[in-house]
From TrEMBL:
The keyword Transferase does not apply. This is diguanylate cyclase. CDD domains: GGDEF (cd01949). Keywords: Membrane, Transmembrane, Transmembrane helix. SMART domains: GGDEF (SM00267). Gene3D superfamilies: 3.30.70.270.
């Protein structure tokens, strides 16, 4: 019965503090009520006034126990009322029960309860009141007392000693709490820092992974897709497309590139390749794949496009390349072969038809676009 309230409060945060106070008061009211009521009956014959005081305060303790069970959220108010009622009872016993030399111990008990339930401020207030009343009564003899000067001095020293013990305990507890809070703050900051570092490292790793993926699928000189990447994409694409295929392949070759290399060197030859690649990238769609197939040979794989649209795209690129003029070389030109993907085509078959169209463009005088005769 005495520990029953502990089940009614969650064990976390501020609720813990309230929960402990409820348990403390529940146990104290029960014990105090039984003791006060019993002592009141025992003292009735010896000292009727003290007996009545004990019985009344015992009944008050039971009333507070009942109030606490019905209003647990008002534990602060109930604890305050209980504290001051106990204070009055203990003072009454101290001043009136002159035959009991141990009654001063009640003052130590109420002071400890004040510090625990209400904190330092009320503990200091009660300590000051107790010292003033005890010393004041001893000097004025308002209530009879068998205590001598040494007894009163000892009691005051006991009260002050208890004050210093509790105060040091409170300071130590606060110091430990603040230290734990500081450690927790430092730990949280360290965890946050490590989390941010890990997130940054993961981001950097992901970026590096994407960069490596891009490097592995991109031609270093032109920035176009490389041959291996295109072969992989083509195989996946043709494996997943439906029966209605409308994809085109534009095969591009730089006219007289071997002569440019032999005459001006590979550095100029690389510049020519990059110029053609820039024109290709400028005119391709997001869905198109521009590829450097090898050497000076490049291609555009254009999905969902008609033969006429593919030929028009090739012609546009041819015109833009021919409009360029490079130092020491002048104008350059390309020849293009266009072929359409058929159902069941392999990459080799599609390339063969595009290459035949490219050969026809070369044979017709270069710098032009030819469409596969098989289309």
């Amino acid at each position: 019965m005495m520990l029953h309230p502990i089940k009614l409060f969650p064990a976390s945060g501020d609720a813990d503090h309230m929960r402990y106070k409820v348990v403390f008061l529940n146990n104290v009211f029960t014990f105090f009520g039984i003791v006060s009521f019993s002592m009141g009956i025992i003292r009735w014959r010896v000292h009727p006034l003290i007996g009545i005081v004990d019985i009344v305060f015992g009944l008050i303790a039971f009333a507070l126990l009942w109030a606490l069970r019905r209003n647990k959220q008002r534990v602060e108010l109930i604890s305050g009322i209980a504290l001051w009622l106990c204070f009055l009872q203990f003072l009454t016993v101290y001043f009136l029960a002159t035959g009991n030399s141990t009654r001063s111990g009640l003052l130590l008990l109420i002071l400890a309860g004040a510090f625990y339930l209400k904190g330092r401020q009320m503990g200091y207030q009660m300590l000051a009141i107790l010292l003033l009343l005890v010393v004041g009564n001893h000097l004025t003899h308002l209530f009879p007392s068998e205590y001598g000067h040494l007894d009163i001095l000892s009691l005051c020293l006991y009260l002050l000693g208890q004050f210093f013990i509790i105060r040091n305990y409170e300071c130590l507890r606060e110091s430990q709490t603040n230290h734990l809070k500081a450690l927790n703050t430092d730990l949280e900051a360290l965890v946050k820092q490590r989390t941010e570092q890990l997130a940054a490292a993961n981001t950097a790793l992901q970026v590096e992974k994407e960069n490596l993926k891009t490097l592995s699928s991109t031609d270093f000189l032109t920035g176009l897709s490389n041959r291996q990447h295109f072969e992989t994409v083509f195989a996946e694409h043709t494996h997943t497309v439906g029966r209605k295929i409308s994809d085109a392949l534009i095969l591009i070759d730089i006219d007289r590139f071997k002569s440019i290399n032999d005459t001006h060197g590979h550095v100029i030859g690389d510049q020519v390749i990059k110029t053609v690649a820039e024109c290709i990238k400028k005119n391709t769609r997001l869905s198109d794949i521009a590829v450097r197939w090898g050497g000076d040979e490049m291609m555009i794989y254009a999905p969902r496009i008609t033969l006429a649209q593919a030929a028009k795209l090739a012609e546009k690129i041819r015109q833009q390349v021919h409009a360029r003029s490079l130092p020491d070389i002048g104008q350059i030109s390309i020849s293009c072969g266009v072929a359409m993907l058929r159902m069941g085509d392999s990459l080799t078959q599609l390339l063969h038809r595009a290459d035949q169209a490219l050969y026809e463009a070369k044979q017709a005088g270069r710098n032009q676009v030819a469409i596969s005769a098989a289309e």
